[in-house]
From TrEMBL:
Domain of life: Eukaryota
Start and end residues of each stretch annotated as Disordered: 251-270, 280-300
InterPro entries: WLM_dom (IPR013536)
Biased composition range(s): Polar residues: 290-300
WLM domain residues: 93-281
Record's protein name: WLM domain-containing protein
Organism whose genome encodes this protein: Multifurca ochricompacta
Matches recorded under Pfam families: WLM
GO molecular function, one term: proteasome binding
Length: 300
């Protein structure tokens, strides 16, 4: 069997004992316990025995150390790159997204079936399109609750102190059911606009129209699978057909009248859009007239 023995004598071509720690002898025989003081006789070497000396020169050792250092450097660089690639550089938004929500939901307990009213409030508060516009425009509401038809017969919605509370007419006048979800949500967009603007002026009308467009556009993108993130960094610009999309979604319900004789496709599309926009404007006037929010200390 082979073994290694270290001896203190120079390798030919070396500079004395500086290479002792790099010298090894390879020979057959029993492997004794060697120390720096072990002699050839102590090692069991005898005349005529074949011995092979192994050793590394300064140049060979330097090359090996250089290769190891380069390998360690590469590994260090790769680890640093890997750690940096896991960090996305982006502007820091110190406002928590969960600030722009309805913080409390409360049906009117004295009205019939408050559990169903609560479910409707929950549906509104968790509506992905509503959550999107609230986050995009940083709208927060303390309390979302309902209005009793007999107590507020002429009011569909009310915003108290620019978002402290929003009250919506959920029920029919005779308390035999609930109003259309899309109608209630449209009133909600109106009242959310009062978080920013108190008067029903052009500023209000522009933002209110934008919220309704974004609700319709968001839902279209969700159906198409082209909008999956809800964050201020992913705000989209409404497409040129966004208003038409909103009009058909809220007024026509997706149905279209048959074409007129000798009517082109573009003429038919324009007729449908004009009718829908006329209905939308009329609905918005009705909502505005039924809005209980006034630009006073109680609303904005």
């Amino acid at each position: 069997m082979g073994c290694f023995v270290i001896f203190r004598f120079p390798v030919p071509g070396s500079s004395g004992l500086r290479l002792v720690s790099r010298q090894k002898l390879l020979y057959k025989g029993k492997k004794p316990t060697h120390t720096p003081e072990t002699t050839v006789r102590d090692a069991g070497l005898s005349h005529g025995m074949k011995v092979t000396m192994l050793g590394s020169t300064d140049q060979e050792l330097g090359t090996m150390i250089k290769v190891e250092n380069e390998q360690r450097l590469r590994e260090t660089i790769m680890r640093e790159r890997a750690s940096k690639s896991a960090i996305k550089v982006r502007s820091v938004n110190t406002t928590k997204p969960n600030s722009f929500i309805f913080h409390k939901l409360e049906p009117l307990a004295h009205l019939p079936d408050p559990a169903s009213a609560l479910q409707l409030l929950q549906r509104l508060s968790s509506d992905p399109a509503i959550k999107h516009v609230m986050l995009t425009h940083q709208l927060s509401v303390g309390l979302l609750t309902e209005l009793a038809p007999d107590e507020h017969p002429d009011i569909l919605g009310l915003n108290v102190n620019a978002g402290q509370a929003i009250k919506l007419r959920l029920r029919t006048d005779r308390y035999d059911g609930f109003r259309s979800y899309n109608d209630i949500r449209r009133v909600l967009c109106h009242e959310l606009t009062h978080n920013v603007w108190g008067e029903h002026d052009n500023n209000f009308k522009e933002l209110n129209s934008k919220l309704n467009r974004e609700v319709g556009e968001f839902e279209r993108r969700m159906r198409d699978g082209s909008h999956t993130l809800m964050s201020p960094e992913n705000v989209y610009e409404p497409s040129p057909l966004a208003l038409e999309t909103e009009a058909r979604a809220h007024v026509l319900g997706g149905s279209e009248p048959p074409p007129l004789p000798n009517e082109s496709t573009e003429e038919r599309r324009r007729r449908i859009l004009d009718a829908a926009l006329s209905r939308l404007r009329e609905e918005e006037r009705e909502i505005e007239q039924s809005c209980g929010t006034a630009p006073t200390s109680e609303s904005h």
